[in-house]
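User: Predict the complex with iron/sulfur cluster.
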Amino acid sequence: MLEQEIREYALDIGFDDIGYTTAEPFPQLTEALDERRNGYSWVSEGLLQIASVADPRYVLPSAKSIVVLVYDYYKQAYPAQLEGCIGKAYQSRLYPGKKRLFGSRLRLIREFLQEKGMEVGVRPAMPERQAAVRAGVGEFGCNTFVYSPGRGSYIAIASLAVSGELEPQNKIAASACSDNCNKCIEACPTGALYAPFKMDPLRCIAFNTYAPGNFPGTPDDIPVDIREKMGTWIYGCDLCQDACPHNSKRLKQKLVPDAFLEEMAPKLAPQKLLNMSDLYYHSIVQPILYGYMWEKKFLQRNSAIALGNTGDPDTVELLATALEDPQEMVRAYAAWALGRIGGKKGKALLEKALAREEPGKTSEEMKAALTQA
Ligand code: SF4
Ligand code: SF4
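Assistant: Here is the predicted structure with iron/sulfur cluster placed in the model:
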C-alpha cells in the first residue's frame, strides 16, 4: 500500500510521524486571519502569503492530498546556558538547505514522492499546524502550538501538497488541553496568549525577537512594555510550552547533551553578540541560528534588551561600545538598556551619546533613556 510505503520511508530517514489529509482548503485559517487582521496583516500579505495558502491548491494547482511530516527536535539535551535566551526550535538546526540534515530529509521525501509519480508543491508555505491536526498527527493546545501525542509540542512540522490521492486520516482531533488547565496563558509574560487558542503575535516575545524591522509589514520597533518583559530572550521564547504539563515529562528526561550546542553556547551569550563583528556573525552566529534574522543588528538589538533587563552594571562598558555602533538600531536599544540599568555612569554615557547623535528616532530613544537612568 502506497501510504504505508511512504510512511516507512519517512520514518527510515528520521521523521517521527507522518499523516495524510486531503488538499481541501482550510476555511478556519481564513476565518482566523479575517477575525484578527490587525495582528496578522504582515503575514497574510507578506512573505508567507498565509491567506492564499489557506487553499493548498495555491501551492500546487494539481494538489489532491497533503503529506504531513512530524520531526521531534528534542532528542538531545539543550545547553542550560541558552535556557531563557534562545528557543529550542532555533537551536535545533532545522536548516532547510539541501546540504544540511533536516533539509536533506525534506529533499529525500520529496524525491521519493516524485518517484511514485506525484507532483510535489512546497512554496511559499503550507498551514502546517492546521494540516497536522487535520491529518491526525497532532492536536492544538491552548497556546496555539500543535502537540504530537506522546511527544509534546517540541516538534517541527513539514507539509507537502501532492498531486496523488492518499487515504486521508482526517481524525477529528480533540484539543490537547483539559478544561481546568490554564498554565500556558498564566506563563505568558506579555498577555500575547489572551484567550485559549488565541495569540496576538504583536505581543509575543518570540515574534518581537525576529520580526520588527526585519519582516516586511511589521512594526519598526519593539514596544517598550514588551522590551521590559522579554527578560533575556534574544531569539524565540519557550515559556508557554515549557509551562505545559504535556511537555513536563520531556523537560525532566535525562538526555545526552548536544556536544555541538554545548560548544556553541558561550559564543551565543548576549555579551558576545552585542558588539560582534560581521565576521563573527557570518562565520559563527548566523550558520547556527537557523531562521529569520538576516542582519546582525537584530540580534545586537535583542542582546542590548537582554542586558538591560539583567540590570547588571557590569554590562555598562559593553553598552557604551554599542552606543557608538554604526547602526542606529543598535545605538537606540543600547541607550534603552542603559536607561534601564540606570546609575551615574550610564547617565553620563547617554548624555555624551545624545550630544553627538543627529536629531531623530535614536536621539529620542536616548532622551527617553535619560529620563529613566
Ligand atoms: S512564545 Fe512567549 S510571549 Fe509568545 S505566546 Fe508563548 S509565552 Fe507568550
Ligand atoms: S498548558 Fe494546559 S492549557 Fe496550555 S496547552 Fe498545555 S495543557 Fe493546554
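The pocket of iron/sulfur cluster (ligand 2) is lined by residues 141-143, 176-177, 181-184, 243-246 (CB under 6 Å).
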